[in-house]
Amino acid sequence: MIVRRTITKDDISNMPKATFEGKIITICTDKDAERAVEFLSQYPVVGIDSETRPSFVKGQIHKVSLLQIATGGHCFLFRLNLMGFPKALIRLLENPDIVKVGLSLKDDFMALRRRAPFKEQSCIELQEFVKPFGIQDKSLQKIYAILFGYKISKSQRLSNWEAETLSPSQQQYAATDAWTCLQIYNLLQELHKTGNYEKEEVVEPEIEEKE
Prior knowledge:
6-stranded mixed beta sheet, globular, alpha/beta, single chain, 8 helices, 18% strand
């Protein structure tokens, strides 16, 4: 496998769309959060992402609306705007035995701390994790396209994440983002283990010598 250094938006536009085909479960109560975390705790690695209601007014900042956590076949959507930050989720984020994989996690955690204090443990930042493989792009969409040849839709990014009910499109978007983080991590771990990849060669431009 040749791992590209970077990819263009034009390249991505022609790719088929990535879709999470597992089970999506929306969590709105502390009781359901306890059950969800109990289920997630069976897994050594999970994908994680968050969504915040966009603000179109200068100076207005909303708290994180949604925290999504995915395994290979399930994604739980924790609606923080409806139930606050349940203790079960904090336990999961602080659990050193469960690896949490995401992108721009520093920003996500900073925003989440506006809801409750916690000290995350065992986290993998994909922007750093991809560097040894020669990948220079920083966005989830580009990293996933480089490795899998599929594009992640961003059509729901600026939708209302505090809506009374999340639409099927919103749920699919949120679940796919968390799931793709996990997919990227798993593939890179496999490539590292097998060595079955090559970094894209950098072709230096020829410089004509002056006579």
